[in-house]
Write a structure and sequence with these properties.
- The structure holds three protein chains of three kinds.
- By secondary structure, chain A is an alpha/beta fold.
- Chain A has five helices and nine strands; from the N terminus they run βββαβββαααβαββ.
- Chain A has helices at 43-51, 94-102, 109-122, 138-150, 168-185, and strands spanning 3-14, 17-27, 32-36, 58-65, 68-70, 79-82, 156-160, 188-193, 205-208.
- In chain A, the strands form two sheets. Chain A has a five-stranded parallel sheet, with helices on both faces. Chain A has a four-stranded antiparallel sheet with strand order 2-1-4-5, with helices on one face.
- In chain A, β7 (156-160), α5 and β8 form a beta-alpha-beta unit.
- The mean pLDDT of chain A is 84.
- By secondary structure, chain B is an all-alpha fold.
- Chain B folds into two domains: 1-45 and 317-538, MetI-like fold; 57-276 and 285-306, Orthogonal Bundle (MetI-like fold), CATH 1.10.3720.
- In chain B, a hairpin with a 2-residue loop joins β1 (39-40) and β2 (43-44).
- In chain B, α1 (6-38) packs across α14 (320-358), α3 packs across α7 (147-171) and α7 (147-171) packs across α9.
- The longest helix of chain B is centred in the middle third of the chain and has 39 residues, at 320-358.
- Chain C has eleven helices and ten strands.
- The longest helix of chain C has 33 residues, at 2-34.
- The relative contact order of chain C is 0.17.
- Classes of the chains: A alpha/beta, B mainly alpha, C alpha/beta.
- Chains in contact: A-B, A-C, B-C.
- Chains B and C meet through α14, α16, α21, α22 and α23 of B and α1, β1, β2, α3 and α11 of C.
Chain lengths: 213, 538, 350
């Protein structure tokens, strides 16, 4: 197994309010796991723990990559994430989003440009390369966020409520794209959603995050 | 690939540097005074504190100070709050112009307005002659050189803080609350029982800041010869007892702390009631009310901006006075601009680093509290601390002998304002934007310069502009440390003001006001042009 | 489209700010390097800038020594500057202290801030106006005078004790005896009369409803405007009213053969201990005490009275030798400044 996420008895609370209590989860390579549960239950927190944006109060998060064991924060592009509100950078054009991410990774300017162009074309945004996020529709913004998350060729992709802003058609295309990625690059995907119906088309495990009591 | 942990270290180092800068700039000058006051010949000795704090004179000074500050806060609220509601709720015509005009008194140095009011209330002034005719013969004209005069001047200087607190509150007021109330009851009652109570905490926050600024103001009571704590601190009695002066700052610190706790406990939680997003509300005010509101606003502009400036202008005639001002005070203009630019950049830079590095955590809160310290001990005492800290051989001496000490004085005094603006900017910034970059393996520093900095430009511009305006007008802390042979506009003006408001002083005041208003207008224009991106960055 | 240019503009604002700052910093550094070329002397002066500045410029013209002045800024006079001198005592920045009165100079002497220097120019100045130990020298004085409104007063008062007369109840004025020359005058009365009589005098003023105004200039203005019939002020203020053609005249009080005399308060000049430029400092002191400076000061609107008998002043300036002055030394006055201030604050100004 070349990469794997391991969450062992993790607890996390904000102030006096416990969000996660001794939660454990394992996700293997190429697996697609959907975290389900009502809002406020800790799904987003779990994703943030995997991404290394938060540290657990107790327990461990481990990420195994190519035989090496890491404890988040990794923050080196091996984990990609699409935020619920997308978190696109309002002052950057679409192409610049990707260029900004690719810079500092040992690529020449031409290589960066080429890679950005190919990423944009995979998400069908080539025509909007010079647009700012606020000039795009909701679906276009979503695809840009995907392109950005995929820019560093991550092994693990985290998606926070990825379908909430999309209509049925767009949702179908997104699921289609994810499936292909999962198949072709053996990408590990963790999705947080309040509505498991949305991802039923993606084959994979569904984990219910329960209320700590 | 870069090791992800390296930027943790550089960040920690940078945070330490920010802490060090704040400590050296703002805390050490105050600390050195307190240490020298408490430790006498190697022994802890609280005699000076005891003798100062338990004298009956203290209570009289305290009463005077609280009377001046409280009076100014009340009057400023009476003037400023209705104007705020008129601007934002009644939506009077020419709102943007009025808003800009109503901001002017707070941007001008208080002592310039004090001079203007002295001219206005003088025997030949607009108000003075009018009052003289109105009052029964033999009754003395109300003199600006009195406690009521000081209250009046300070209130007319600081009321914009209350106005803008009200405007800001109403812009965050969720219109749906009002609509819900309208469905259930009478239109007139809605304003009184829904709009006012919900926005009142913000208005009171404005009033509280007026109280603190008036309490700590030195130049106005000094000019109007009213004895308050800052004035007494400057004179520090005829004995030049610095320990006594330091002890005298304690009641002021206590009052500031009380004001701050009152805000934190009572007002801040209630400010959270306002959660609405900015949006245009439907008009609910009758044309008659709007006409009255507009008349009130213009009346206030007339009284607080046009009348003082026009009085100064009339006093400054003939026009050739301006020529002689320019010839004799050219150097001062240059010095003040230099100090203004350097202070503004120092403040904006440090405040940005502080907000970016320390965010909203407990450290940031402690730092903000610490930054209030040099302001709360009043300018004159701060300058004594600066002398004690920097007037020594070696590198500190180089600083003390140059204008750098003036820049440092401005920096120490206004750091909390600069930090406050950029902290507000940081809070408006969506933290996901930075995180989105971090997840992708972008270093913290690149994310800061590539994402946070560009998105904070509106706040940086506002901070820079305000810091420039404050530094050009700064007097309280610089008056004692300005190096020999160098004079800032503010110091020169203050020196000359004591000989009475003659044509030269009036002309110099107006030219100083012009410099400040130009800078303010530029900053406001730049902020206004790019202000709408705040919504985009959300 | 607005959106496209929006963020470009952001960067241009940042660049603008940085550019302006870079220019300012360059200017600042250039400024710093250009300094210290010509020899310089630092003087802290409490005499109004409009009078002291021309004198200092003339010194530079004559000697080529640049003068770096710090002017006092406070209504209550000199306290700020003296605070600064005391605060800087470990590393003095000032060479010369030029005060417009005596009390604060003596405070500085007693605090060990000053250095003794007997200037050769001071030889002709009467001993009463010099520190016996040579720490300071007086020159160009002001006298305490009665100013009266010629429309309201036919027979002018001749003594400060006339303030207690019922006929002037509520019709005369003094300045707040906490600041400037009025404070010195009050301390001089305590020194001359003793505590009991002086306190009785001040309580008498209160009982007679004598107005206490902000400063000597205010007393002058209000008397000239007819708000009060007469009052106590300084020669320099009083002369202003006369020069402006206001209906006011002034005279020295208590000039009778056994009268109290009036108080004459000189400017004082002193060398600061540890002065960074001691040679230039002595040159400046010698210059300030020279007859030409006393003459120049006597010709100004403030008509400072020359102390050097060799100076020929115009006739509108009273000669100090013809004036009956109070028989107290400045050290005696200085010793009573603090207790007088306490009395005035606690009992008189209530």
């Amino acid at each position: 197994m070349t990469h794997r996420i391991e969450i062992r008895a993790v607890s996390k609370s904000y102030g006096p309010r416990p969000i996660l209590t001794k939660y454990s989860l394992e996700v293997g390579e190429g697996e697609c796991v959907t975290l389900c549960g009502p809002s406020g239950i800790g799904k987003t927190t779990l994703l943030r723990l995997i991404a290394g944006l938060e540290l657990p109060d107790a327990g461990e998060v481990r990420i195994h990559l190519d035989g090496l064991e890491h404890t988040p924060p990794l923050l080196d592009g091996a984990v990609g994430m699409v935020f619920q509100d997308l978190a696109l950078w309002p002052h950057m054009r679409a192409a610049r989003h990707l260029d900004f991410v690719l810079r500092g990774r040992g690529l020449s300017r031409a290589q960066r440009r080429q890679r950005a162009a190919s990423l944009l074309s995979t998400v069908d945004l080539s025509a909007l390369a010079r647009s700012f996020p606020h000039q795009m529709s909701g679906g276009e913004q979503q695809r840009l966020a995907f392109a950005r998350a995929m820019a560093t060729a991550p092994r693990i992709l985290l998606l926070d409520e990825p379908f909430s802003n999309l209509d049925v058609t767009l949702r179908g295309r997104l699921v289609e794209g994810l499936r292909r990625l999962q198949r072709e690059q053996s990408l590990t995907i963790v999705i947080a959603t309040h509505d498991p119906e949305e991802v039923s088309a993606l084959t994979g495990r569904i984990e219910y995050v329960a209320n700590p009591s | 690939m870069r090791h992800p942990r390296t930027d943790v270290h550089t960040r920690r180092a940078a945070s330490l540097l920010v802490w060090a800068a704040v400590l050296v700039m703002a805390v050490l000058p105050v600390a050195i005074l307190f240490v020298r006051a408490i430790v006498v010949e190697g022994q802890v000795n609280l005699d000076s504190f005891r003798s100062v704090l338990f004298s009956t004179r203290q209570w009289r000074l305290l009463a005077n100070s609280v009377l001046v500050a409280g009076g100014a806060a009340c009057l400023a609220t009476l003037l400023g709050a209705p104007a705020g509601y008129a601007l934002a709720y009644a939506r009077v015509p020419a709102r943007r112009l009025l808003t800009a005009l109503l901001a002017i008194p707070a941007l001008l140095p208080p002592y310039v307005l004090a001079t203007a009011w002295a001219v206005m209330l003088g025997a030949n002034g607009v108000l003075g002659s009018w009052l003289g005719a109105l009052l029964p013969l033999g009754q003395a004209r109300p003199s600006p050189f009195s406690v009521p005069g000081t209250i009046l001047v300070l209130a007319f200087t600081y009321y914009p803080l209350v106005t803008f607190a009200a405007v800001a509150a109403l812009s965050r007021f969720d219109g749906r609350l009002e609509e819900a109330a309208l469905l259930t009851g009478a239109r007139a009652r809605v304003f009184r029982s829904v709009v006012v109570p919900l926005t009142l905490p913000s208005v009171l926050t404005g009033a509280l800041s007026v109280f603190v600024l008036a309490l700590l103001n030195f130049s106005v009571p000094s000019l109007l010869q009213v004895n308050t704590y800052p004035v007494e601190l400057y004179a520090s009695s005829a004995t030049y007892d610095f320990a006594a002066a330091t002890a005298q700052s304690l009641p002021l610190l206590a009052l500031c702390l009380i004001a701050l706790s009152a805000w934190a406990v009572v007002l801040r939680p209630r400010n959270a009631w306002l959660t609405g997003a900015r949006r245009e509300r439907s008009l609910r005010v009758s044309p008659r009310v709007r006409a009255w509101a507009a008349a009130g606003c213009w009346g206030l502009v007339l009284l607080s901006v046009f009348a003082p400036l026009a009085s100064l202008f009339v006093r400054s005639l003939p026009l050739r006075t301006y020529l002689s001002v320019w010839e004799t005070a050219r150097g001062e203009f240059g010095t003040s601009l230099l100090v203004g630019v350097l202070s503004a950049t120092l403040l904006a830079g440090l405040a940005f680093l502080q907000s970016a590095l320390l965010g909203k955590g407990r450290q940031a809160a402690v730092l903000m509290l610490v930054e209030l310290l040099p302001f709360a001990v009043t300018g004159p005492l701060l300058s004594l601390g600066l002398i004690a800290l920097w007037n020594r051989d070696g590198l500190p001496g180089l600083v003390y002998d140059s204008l750098a000490i003036v820049v440092l004085a401005c920096g120490a005094r206004y750091l909390f304002i600069a930090a406050g603006i950029l902290a507000a900017g940081g809070q408006r910034m969506n933290p996901r934007l930075h995180e989105a970059a971090r997840v992708q393996g972008i270093s913290w520093w690149r994310a800061m310069f590539g994402i946070t900095l560009p998105l904070q430009v509106p706040f940086l511009v506002a901070c820079w502009g305000l810091a420039f305006v404050l530094a050009v007008g700064e007097l309280d802390a610089t008056v004692l440390v300005c190096p020999p042979g160098k004079t800032t506009l503010a110091i020169r003006l203050f020196t000359l003001m004591h000989y009475g408001p003659d044509a030269y002083v009036a002309a110099l005041s107006l030219m100083t006001a012009l410099v400040i208003l130009c800078a303010g207008a530029c900053a406001a224009w730049a902020y206004g042009r790019i202000g709408n991106t705040r919504d985009a960055s959300h | 489209m607005k959106g496209l240019s929006m963020f470009k503009e952001h960067r241009s604002y940042m660049r603008g700010i940085l550019l302006v700052t870079a220019c300012a910093a360059t200017l600042f550094l250039a400024h710093g390097c250009a300094r210290e070329k010509a020899p310089a002397v630092v003087v802290y002066t409490a005499l109004d800038e409009m009078y002291s500045q021309p004198i200092l410029s003339a010194f530079t013209e004559q000697t080529g020594i640049r003068v770096l002045p710090v002017y006092d800024t406070e209504a209550s006079k000199t306290t700020g500057m003296v605070s600064r001198l005391v605060a800087e005592r470990d590393r003095p920045r000032a060479d010369v202290f030029w005060n417009n009165e005596t009390a604060q100079t003596i405070v500085l002497k007693n605090k060990g801030i000053l250095e003794a220097y007997r200037s050769p120019s001071a030889e002709s100045i009467p001993d009463a106006f010099k520190d016996p130990e040579g720490f300071w020298t007086g020159f160009a004085a002001r006298g305490r005078v009665i100013i009266y409104n010629t429309d309201l007063v036919k027979v002018p008062p001749s003594s400060i004790r006339d303030l207690l007369k019922p006929e002037w109840a509520g019709r005369a004025a003094i300045a707040k005896p906490l600041f400037g020359t009025t404070a010195t005058h009050a301390a001089a009365l305590f020194a001359a009369w003793g505590d009991g009589e002086a306190k009785a005098f001040f309580h008498g003023l209160k009982d007679n409803q004598i107005a206490v105004l902000a400063g000597n200039a205010t007393v002058r203005d209000q008397v000239a405007a007819g708000e009060y019939a007469w009052g106590l002020t300084d020669t320099d203020d009083a002369n202003g009213a006369v020069e402006d053609g206001r209906p006011a005249k002034w005279l020295y009080p208590d000039q009778g053969p056994d009268g109290l005399g009036t108080l004459v308060i000189p400017n004082t000049v002193a060398l600061v201990k540890g002065a960074p430029h001691p040679d230039a400092a002595q040159k400046l002191i010698d210059y300030l005490l020279s007859p030409q400076v006393e003459e120049a000061l006597s010709k100004m609107r403030s008509i400072q009275i020359p102390l050097n008998p060799n100076v020929v002043a115009s006739e509108r300036v009273p000669k100090v030798s013809d004036t009956r002055t109070m028989a107290v030394t400045f050290d005696e006055i200085a010793a009573r400044m603090e207790s007088t201030a306490v009395f005035v604050k606690e009992e008189f100004l209530q």
